[in-house]
Specification:
CATH class of the largest domain: Alpha Beta
CATH topology of the largest domain: D-Maltodextrin-Binding Protein, domain 2
Distance between the termini: 16 Å
CATH superfamily of the largest domain: Periplasmic binding protein-like II
Oligomer: single chain
């Protein structure tokens, strides 16, 4: 295992044998893919590779001279829908970024809804693999464990951003939370996060709360217990005469934290594998009492007409449509969604629909204690970039420049000048109407000014003063009442099994929530269907990581 890391490290810097070792690295990755495809374990693969490549010894480890790292000639970047898309001046964003960085790169923008299908396909073929890619925490852990991502621990330690003195107080904690295990089983940094991850808060329509006899001021400063929250939902349903109160984009989220959209009901339940400190081992959170209790709470709420029974068919878009509906059969009054910018976006939806747009961001219920701050999607550099000698240059001149505290950071936060915003005579921002919907103005591009890990060199974020008050209110409330989730644990075995396991978890949640199964029936089906796979996954985690 150590041999792989050492080979990878010596691809950096002015090493006279760099090209030789790069070929070794290529051979190793190709061999891993071929042999794991026929069922050999990664440990076995690494043993076979090591036997034939004794030149890659621990003595050949090299330290990168970061001052001498040069710009890459060209590279490719695969991004999701959080980077300006072509229909929202994506071409102008790319154009201005190239001008500011003086880099030559191609941006690949798969369809947002099938992004991770495109990612998976690209990772199967070195010729199709991008040099830079955005990955959620789940996929970060998965691909790092497979040796498909470049270790940027040293790069971050020597970065201009870290040395700038502009980092927020929690920046290093957030970066550390994104350390995941590589093929050697050791934790390292495989992805750069320019922002904190944000999370969801529960928004209540003030008009609904008032109709049910609740004061907005009290709800904003005093947390409810779960029973009090449940009682409020019932009173709102009665007062408004609606079919349901909550419309969620599914009874679960398909990425960590999976319990994002119904936090009051899940409380401290763990959807997937986690390390139980008391037991000193990894367990399957889905089979624990906390999850069983959570599923019962969700089923009860569906039966009582508080959560829309059809939430299993809802997307984020259709759930938002319910929130801005005025039809008693579809309208919802409670919606758990992202803090910050979305607070104002939701208000805009309501105002456009002719509804009262006042929203209350609820404090987390007492049993929950804290909302979940997710791990931010990471900007990763792939093994393909390492193989071709581009990794160090991409980090130094592309990723590290995102938070340069000047024009490049402004572009990443607020989009292309002249298309997302213009500057007034006094230097303040004037946001422009969206290309796809001119009646709605832009407020951000990729980076959220409320989430960035580093401030501007002059101490003033140029567009933050233009943020609506409710954006700041919901963002501040969230970060004062949230806790950072743990990075997911991943092994080769878990990577093979977790897809089938999660599919069954989704099925159980949907059927129990809708009342088609009792909680006990759901857990029995879960055990009968994927129990052996769960056992294998837990065994793999405890074999490799317990006690580490």
């Amino acid at each position: 295992m150590l041999i792989y890391i050492n080979v990878k490290n010596i691809l950096s810097g002015a090493n006279p044998h760099k090209n030789q070792y790069r070929e070794v690295y290529k051979f190793m990755r190709k061999t891993i893919k071929k042999l794991t495809a026929v069922g050999l374990t990664l440990t076995s693969v690494m043993g076979l590779v090591a036997c034939g490549n004794n030149n890659a010894s621990t003595e050949n480890k090299a330290t990168v001279d970061w001052a001498s790292v040069e710009k890459p000639e060209s590279f490719t970047v695969m991004v999701d829908g959080t980077v300006p898309q072509m229909e929202e001046w994506g071409d102008k964003f790319d154009e201005q970024l190239k001008q500011l960085t003086e880099l030559d790169f191609e941006v690949v923008r798969p369809d947002h809804n099938s992004y991770y299908d495109a990612v998976a396909n690209s990772m199967l073929d070195a010729s199709a693999m991008p040099d830079v890619i955005i990955l959620s925490s789940d996929y970060l852990a998965l691909y790092a464990s497979q040796g498909l991502l470049w270790d940027m621990t040293d790069a971050w330690a020597n970065s201009a951003t870290k040395a700038s003195g502009r980092l927020i107080s929690d920046a290093e904690k957030i970066m550390q939370a994104n350390y995941v295990r590589g093929v050697d089983g050791e934790k390292a940094l495989y992805g750069f996060v320019p922002t904190r991850g944000n999370g969801c808060v529960t928004y209540v329509k003030e008009a609904w709360a008032t109709a049910a006899g609740y004061s907005a001021d009290e709800l904003k400063k005093t947390p409810l217990s779960y029973d009090q929250y449940y009682e409020m939902l019932k009173k709102m349903k009665e007062a408004k005469g609606v079919d349901y109160v909550i419309s969620a984009p599914g009874f679960y989220s398909k990425e960590a934290p999976y319990t994002n959209y119904l936090p009051e009901f899940y409380q401290n339940a763990q959807f997937t594998f986690y390390y139980d400190q008391a037991k000193g081992e990894y367990v399957d959170g889905f089979t624990q009492k906390e999850m069983k209790d959570a599923l019962q709470r969700i089923q009860n709420a569906v039966n009582d007409g508080l959560i829309n029974k059809e939430s299993s068919t809802k997307t984020t878009a259709t759930a938002r449509n319910d929130f801005k509906s005025s039809d008693p059969k579809t309208e919802s009054g409670v919606f758990t969604y992202w803090a910050g910018q979305w607070a104002d976006t939701l208000r805009g939806y309501l105002a456009t629909a002719g509804l009262d747009d006042s929203l209350i961001p609820l404090l987390p219920v007492k049993e929950l204690g804290k909302y979940a701050e997710r791990l931010a999607p990471s900007w990763c550099i792939t093994s393909h970039a390492a193989e071709t000698g581009k990794a160090e240059g991409i980090f130094k001149y592309f990723l590290d420049k995102m938070l340069d505290g000047g024009d490049i950071q402004t572009l990443w936060e607020y989009g292309p000048k002249g298309y997302y915003y213009n500057l007034k005579d006094d230097g303040s921002f004037e946001f422009l109407g969206k290309k796809s919907n001119p009646k709605t103005k832009y407020a951000k591009a990729h980076l959220d000014c409320n989430l960035v890990l580093a401030g501007f060199a002059n101490g003033k974020d140029p567009g933050k003063a233009e943020q609506p008050a409710n954006v700041t209110e919901s963002s501040d409330m969230f970060f004062q009442n949230s806790t950072l989730v743990d990075s997911p644990a991943m092994t080769e075995e878990v990577g093979k099994l977790v897809g089938d396991i999660n599919t069954e978890r989704y099925t159980v949640v949907d059927k129990v929530a809708r009342g088609e199964w009792t909680v006990d029936q759901g857990m029995t089906e879960y055990t009968n269907t994927v129990g052996s796979k769960v056992e294998a996954a837990v065994k793999s985690l405890n074999t490799q990581f317990a006690g580490k």
